[in-house]
Amino acid sequence: MRMKQIVVSVVGLMVAGTLTAQTPADTMPTVIRAGRLFDSEAGAFLGPREILIRNGGIVAVAEKVDRPTGARIIDLSNRTVLPGLIDAHTHLLYLEGVTGGLTMEGIKALVNEGLPLRALHGAARARTFLAAGITTVRDLGNSGRFGDVALRAAIEDGSVDGPRMWVSGPGLSPVGGQFPGLKPGYESLAADEYRIVRNPAEAADAVRENVTMGANVIKIFSNNTPNAGYLTVEEMRAIVGAAAMHGVRVAAHATSDAAVYRAALAGVHSIEHAYQVADSTLALMARNGVAMVPTDIDSVSIIQYLSLANPGQPAPAADQVARYLAGGRDRLRRAVKAGVTIAAGSDNYLDLKRAQGPAARRVLFAYHQAGLTPAQVLQAATINDARLLGMEHRLGVLKPGARADVIAVEGDLERDFGALERVRFVMKAGTVYLGR
Ligand SMILES: [Zn+2]
Description:
single chain, Urease, subunit C, domain 1, eight-stranded mixed beta sheet, four-stranded parallel beta sheet, binds zinc ion
């Protein structure tokens, strides 16, 4: 058994060694000179700092660091420097036209696009996330039968440039997945995109299956909107228990207040969306340490969406947009007030005719428009997301021991949040992908 494992790992190394990395790893010691530096743990913008990097990791952060002889110096003294951003809710292998709807677009992805092409499309999208400064994603399903695992492997072996990935495989869902309107005899279409579970034993089994196939996070549907199903508290407890035995965490899609309440009660780690959450449920989430991932849309993206969905119609007025977004913004402010941890996640899968990475980054503008300060928004997209992944000492933070995932924007991010659209430098694990 042990021998076999060694043989397998050696073969794995040989295969990886034959590939030419898309961007060769930078290995020389490096010093970054930062004009301003965002301290994600303190939620504070600091003055000039230097970051010493060796072997892809951060060794020191100080006003002046010892410069090893021959070190490469990267001058970002006119930039705001921050940890690489994390997006805790992506679908890299799924892109939906604005008029299609989940069932038709989902069937197209399964039947017309197919898994190999979905993974290749995902690879192209992954590059745009990295270029946008998003160096880590938690990809939550809608990737067919483990296409997300394949994409993660391609990024890890260097053949595709992209963010670090946590991947769920197919989301665990009540009957029908998120495909409403399937006629008898065609339920298997939903079972190709989702892992259907019908009782607690099956739910635990699905966790074991997904982890065995490579998932390192579990995605579930406490309710499977737009279908009308739901998982019971017992089913979700079985999922949380099995996930804990594998050391992986659970993200629950939940839109109605009841669905959020049941998932929080069952002990999931994050609630995705929580559109209709009540204050009493927010209090439960705060008590149980359940994070909220508000997958909100900002005022610019909603106008893009409406004009693409209604061609020829006049663009909506600002007050219409504000009315449309008011409920979501209110529930985000209520969540913050209740003491719920906000973890940033875009759920960006709509085709807004823009590269997917920058489009996903717009979720941070939605939080800012709802009233969160730049520091609160950036904490959501760095340290809070890192904690959700259980990686708070390695990711989402610029300190010794962390991976060298570092980005820089042009402008003073504290006073001009729009500077986040001007990412000029991206480093992941010490390798520079943008701004060489
Ligand atoms: Zn989603």
